[in-house]
Amino acid sequence: MQFFLFLAFVIAVLFVVITFQNPDEIPIKFINRTFSQPLALALAIPFAAGLLTGLFLFIPVWWRKAKLARSQKKRIKELESELEHPATMLPESNEGVETEQVGIAPEKEEGFD
Known about the structure:
This protein is mainly alpha-helical. The chain has helices at 2-21, 39-84; strands at 25-30, 33-38. Strand 1 (25-30) and strand 2 form a beta hairpin. The radius of gyration is 33 Å and the shape is elongated.
């Protein structure tokens, strides 16, 4: 996170330096019109458009991950509450339920493969 803040700061400083070192206006041609604008604005508009495009492409991915995280947190809380109250997970009566004692499996005898 700190790296991205540092990177944003460096980009902002570079933009300010470019703005003050290039105050002249440049012509921009779009379809059949010609506009005259400062070089800094000519650089800032496509940069901002690229940032917005990237943001709009990232929002659906972020939304899905946030939704998944919320559902997983809810499931974790449910499982933790079940662990706190294990008696609620067991059936009320054990009638008709046969229990089997689990032991150590016998070793294989040699000669029988």
